[in-house]
Each structure stands twice: as C-alpha cells, then as structure tokens.
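Annotators were shown the component list below and the corresponding predicted structure, then asked to write short factual statements about the assembly.
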Amino acid sequence: MLAAAGLTKRYGPLTAVDHLDLSVGPGELFGFLGPNGAGKTTTIKMLVGLLRPTAGTASVAGFDLAQDPEAAKRRIGYVPDAAFLYEKLTAREFLEFSADLYQVPPESRKKRIETYLQLFQLRDRASDLLAGYSRGMRQKVALAAALLHDPQVLFLDEPTVGLDPRSARQMKNILLDFCREGKTVFLSTHILEIAEQMCTRIGIIDHGKLIAVGTLDELRQMVSADGQSLEQIFLQLTGSQDEDVAAPLVEP
Amino acid sequence: MTRSLSDAFRFAAILSAAQLRMFINQTLRSREPMRLVLLVLGGLFVLFLWIQELAGTLLAAEASRRFPSRFGHIASHDVLQIVGVALVAYAVLLMFSSALFSLNALLLNPDLDLLLVTPWRVDTVLAARMLNQILRMVLLSLLFVLPLLCGLGIILHQPLVPLALIVLLAVFPVMFVIAASVMVLAIVRFIPPSRAREAMAAVGIVFAVVINLANFLLNPAFSSRPPGLRPGIPNLPLGTTPWLPFGWAGRAVTGVLSGDPWATLGWGGLVVGVTLLVLVLGTRLSGVLYLSGWAQGAWGAPRPARALPSAASDRTPRRRSPVVALVLKDWRVRRRDVAQLTGLAMPFGFFLLVLALNGPRLMSSLEPLGSGPLKALTGIVPVLLILLSLTTALGLSAVSLEGRAIWVYASSPNSMRSLLEAKCWAAALPTIAVSLVMGTALQVAIRPDLPWAVGAVTLLLVLSGALACVMVGLGGIVGRFDWTDARRMVHPVGGLVALLVQFGLIVAVAGLVLLPLLLASIFHQSLLGLFLAGVLAASLAAVVTAIVVLVLAEQRLRRLEI
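Structure shown to annotators:
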C-alpha cells in the first residue's frame, strides 16, 4: 500500500532523511517514532507529496508520487501536526471545500460530512468560523477533512495533540476501524503508549535514518530485551537511555 | 515604586536586546545577498536623506538671515504655535500607533503568553513592552528629525540644543503611549479574538477620518482668505495652552531655541515629572486591568446555524469542480474579512470623493478633446487607476491568500494549473465587472461617439481580465506561504517588481493604442480602422503577457515545497 525506496531529503549540508526504505501493507497501522528533529515530519511530507525527495522514490497504492502524484494523492488523507485551516470558513464549509477538492461524489458527500461532524461532536458549532475553534477542534476538523474522501492511506502527524482524552480515544477507535477495512494508517507520534497499544508495526527514525522496523516483539528481539516497554526500547535504540542529561542542570 | 520602574526598564532592555538580535539575524547574519544589498541600499538612502535635510535646514536658515524681509520675522509665540501643532499631531500619531500595537499584542501576537509565563510581574511585562515601543518610536522619530535637530544646534551655536530636544522627544511620547495602552486594555475584553484584524482596521479607518477631518477644519489652506495672502499657521489653542502636555513641551522647546534655561528646565521638568507619574500609575493600572481577565472576555456569539437547515434537507448537493470550489472559498474568505473589504473599498471612496468635488471641472476640461478616440480613452483613465489598486488587492494576493493552509490544496489530487485557473477567475470576474460598470458609466457621462466608446470599453475589459491574471501569476511567483501575517505573504521585493510590471503593462498598452492614432493623424489614414487595430494589438499583448506570467507561476508552484 505504501512503499519508499532510498528516500532522501537534504537541505544543504543537512541530511534530514537518509536513504529510507520502507513498506507498509494494507490493514496496517504503522507507528513512526523518533526524537525531535529526527526526520519524521520530513518523511511524511515526502510520502504525501508535499516535499520533493532529493533522491529515492515513494509510492502510495501503487502510484509513484513523482510520476503520478495526483493519482497517489487521491488515495491519501493527511493531517499535519499543526493544521492551518481557513479561519474565515465554518467547519461545514471547510469540509465541503475539502469534498470539492477531492471530488467526493455528491450522493455521499452530505452524508459523510454530517457523519463526521456528528462523530467528532462538531455539529453544534459547525456553523461557527474556524477562527473561534480551539486547537483540538481544529485537529478534529482536519481529521474529518482527511477522512472525507475515503482514502486508502491516512497519514497523521501527531494526531492526538490538543485533543481531550475522550476525543483521543474516539480517534483511536476511528483509526482501528479504518485499518479493519483493509486501509493503512501511517502515524507519527511522541506518545509511545498510543504506538504500543495500537500499532501493528513500528518504525523508529533517528538522525534521518530508519534504525528499526518491526512489531513490538521484533523490536524487543532486536535489542535482546524480553518484556521491555516500547519506551525502554525506544530510548535504547535512540541511544539516550543511560544518559543522565539533566545532571548538569541539577545544582550540587 | 523605584523597584517596579527599574524592573520595567530591565525587562525592556532584555526585550530590546532580543529584538536587536532578531533584526541582526534577519539582516547581517541572514547570509542572503539580497537582504544584505537591501540593507546597505537602505542605509545609503537614509544617509542621503539626512545630508539633504541638514543642508536644507542650513540653507533655509541662511536664506532667512540674508533676506529677512522676504521670509518675515518669526516671533517666539509663532514658534510655540508651530511646535504646539506638531506635538498635537505627533500625540495623535502616538495614540493611534500605540492602540494598534496593543491590540496586535493582546489579540494576535502569541509572544505575550511567552513573556507572561516568565517570573516577572504582569505590570512589569506590560510596562516593558510599552517602554520598548516608546524606544522604537523615538528611534523612528530620530530617523526623520535628527539632521534637523543637529542643524538647529549649528545655527544657534549651541551644541546642547540637539541633546535637550532629543530628551524631550524621548520623554514626550511616554504618557500618550501609556494612555493608549491602558485604554486598549480596558476595551479589549469586548473584542472577540477572531475579530482582531477587523478591530484594527476600524482603528485605522477612525484614524484616517480624524486626520482628514482635522486637516480640513484646521488647515488654513482650506479656509477662505483674501487672494494673495500667504497661508498662516493653524490656530490650535489645544497645542499652546499651559494646562496640557503639548503646551509644557512646546514652552520647553521654545526655551531651548531661545536659550532660556529657566523656561527649559521649568517646563521640561514638568514634562518629565508628570511622565514619571503617568508611567508608574499607568503600568500599575494596566497590570490590574490585565489581571482582571481580558482574556476571558467576549469570544463572539455563535453564528446563527444557517448551514443546519441545508444539512437537514434531503437535497443532494451539486458536485463542484475544484476550480469552482476554490473560487467560492475565496469569495467567502474575502467577503468575511472586513479589513480586506475596507482596503478594497477605500479607492472607490476616494474616487467618488474626487469626482464629487471636481466632477464639473474635469468634465469641462475634456471638451477640447471633441468626441473622438482621445476623449473615449481619457474616459477609461480613472478606471485604470482603480484597476491598479483592485488587481493588486485581488490578484497579487490571490495565491498567497492560501497562506499556511496551502497544504490543503497541495496535498489534494489537483494540479497547480487549476489552482491558478481558479485564482484567475476569482480575481478577474470582480475586476471585469467593476470595469464594465465604471467604464460604461464614464463613457455615458463624457459622451464620445459610440464606436470609440465601445472600443475603449472593450479594451478596458480585456485589460482588466489580463491585468488581474498577470497579477495572479506574479503573486504565484513571489507569494510566500510560511507566514501567518497576511501583510507579509508576498515577498516585498517581488511585490515591488510586480507593481512595476503592472505599471509597465498599462504603459505598453497605452502606447500600442496611441501609436496608431498618431500614425493615422500623420498619414491621414482611417482613424477608426487604425484605432481598432491598436485596440486589438494592445489586447493581444496583454493576454500574451498574462499567459507567459501564468506559465512561469505554474512552474514555480509545481516546485513548491511546504
């Protein structure tokens, strides 16, 4: 469903993503983890066609993002980490606009918009301008817009930021249902519990390199540590487990 | 009291240092050649203006000394009157800019939150920001008047004169900036944050109206006076009364210029003393007002649920193409932005005002042109002036209107060509409609013969559409999408180049239409035939330019990385 080969992005001397090879199949909920600045957002932006790779290829649902970006994007839903929306549109108008952009069939469009407004508890404020929405509500609108055209692959960059616990739980359920339909979710998050509970496979990126990919058990085998939590595995793989980084800040 | 003041000054110093650092980072350390070149050019330009101002001041003083009968004698009460008017005008400007700054800081600028989580008192933070703003105002003022102040020092042979005037210039704004900030803190709770830009636009309109009204009422040039009498100094008792800060500062300035140390120290001391008092009380009051909870103020009533009935109905929505969807979205976004609408409407207001005041005179000045092509073409000139503003407002900003939300479109399965197509429709349709209405109305008013009128309006319509598309394309080439501030969405240098291209296109079109008319009069050819050929050539040139610019814009947008 999703494949990247030798995907690389350089900004001058800085290599943000370095020869990333990855394949995610149908029905998978893939967790993409990494420290700050590791290259997660850059990778996602290349996979959704917002950034042009310096080298390598990426394809979604069999469509190469460089050769046939429009066909690939038709099968992609994307929610960025801080989704900027048109503040002067209402939530419903924004969803209608998204439906138009993705050419959602008229017969199902209205039903879908209403369903997602209802699902994300936005219906009461669907006629309010987005300028008055909180970050969590904007996040819900962005997610609804991403789901509206029934994508094959959903890319989410820190999707639970700003969401209250109830909405976060709701989002998790939506994503699991999405995968049960044989579709793919590519999820970047810092909340390791989410990845541990939900993801079928996990990839860890550090300094632009994909340093580990596999199920939680496979990752445990990789670090030779049975029963360790994802947090411990993550810290071990990214080399920050034993560093007492706060020591210099603690007064003697 | 001393502690809170010193804290405010310390915090202001920290803020100023950070701002200076940001300025250096954006210019000297940016390592961008264009920025460095612009910085050097800007510095040279300021230096040139300073030399010019200093030379002008010294020359004027010398001329006044050599030919006193021609320039007349300026008495000290005249100086007080002039300085009083200048100080009142400066105070109005200070109040306005402070109100805008405070509104911006409280409603739009997220950095206030960043400062307020620091372990400083709220009133210290607010006072520091006010001091910071005053410092910027003083530096900006000095940018304009420093050579004049130095020139006065040279003329009066008193090296302390510039220093004394700079101290007054630095102290005088404080009370007005604080008064405006406190007023804004008091009223900001009634402004919904989502309406911040509209509120700022309203402040701008009020300022423009006040300035123009005051100018109209007070400027002696507008009052009737016997012919041959030179314009006098505006009589503004507010500026000279000894009961208000303008009068105190004015008398201190007069004291400095006339070399009266007691008047300088007395009135100047009063200004400084009252300023300190206002600074202390004002900052305390602003802290209290802030803590009383402006942020919990009005968030605006929810809009009436107009969309709900349609959602509840069973009507199947129509499928819209992405182009139509974009045009519709742009229409909604623009229509709901009062600040933008005001900017769009102001040239029309100005146009109608000029027409109302000078209409008959302008009409009679067209009579010598007869009823031929020159009259018809002159009739479209006012519309062209409106077009300059309209195509800039609607066209140049069309692509960057997406702002940081461009990801919505860029990640959708649509080409950049259709984005540009939509933007062209969104900008060209209202522009053409305005041109049609205004162009036809003006032709009816000036009454050239029908063929010329039709030709002129046709040219106007083609030019409107093409110019709107050219500006859309240029906006696509120079647009930026990484800013939240709408004013910075177009690269400043790129914006300037776009305006030059726009102006150049109009001049080229005018040339292509007027040249055949000139040839017809020289070679005694059919005027109508050559006129129509000129209109056709000009229209083609405009359309080809638009296509070329749009192709370049598409190339740029296809390479866009977000």
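Statements collected:
1. The interface with chain A takes residues 192-194, 299-300, 302-308, 311, 316-322, 324-325, 328-329, 332-333, 336-337, 403-405, 407-415, 484, 559, 561-562 of chain B (CB under 8 Å).
2. Residues 2-31+74-222+234-295 of chain B form one domain.
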